[in-house]
Amino acid sequence: MQELTGKHFHTSEQYKEMTEATRERDRKDAEKVLAFFKDYDQFQESNELRNIANGVTGPASANPHLLYEVGMNIVQKIEGSNAFDFSFRKKDQVEPLGAKVTINAEKVSIDPQLLFQRLLIFANNSVLGVEEVFTYELSSYPTALFDKWGRLREANKPQLADETAAVVPKSALESFEEERTVTNVLDGGSLLQRIPWKKGDTFEDIASM
User: Where is the composition biased (Basic and acidic residues) (predicted)?
Assistant: First the structure.
């Protein structure tokens, strides 16, 4: 039939892993792996525990490799104890591998590599220099926005208003009363509630309303 019709049947490569694009991507991935192990050599002799993912070296007290033994010791202490009287002491638990900082008398684990990258990005895009940025305390989350349990703090608008009034000079308030200047402060939530937004309206239409 091929000779009769002058058509020829051909098949392409059936396995996408064998295509040129996939092989090139695999080659680049292999180079990335080799470059990573060049920076984080995991085969050098050392008595310290080291994270093979980011190169973080743990303190001498870190014992995640003894997880099973530590867990069995806790179980033995639980056996025969009153459930309401038993407490899990931190000294009996596994100390993870990783750096820790103290925030409000609480030790918090951090990822030094991620924190270092974020600080570099901030330093390079800020008017502050690198040296000044690294003089601040390192923490896994800003305590001004989060409480000691890691929960996002709620906005306290009355307190914000009081603090704002405290820093505004009295002369500015007196001049404001004399001029009777009217200033409108638009709250985002108020706009959503008071103005009927219609589907398809532009920002200009909403501003006009």
Answer: 10-25
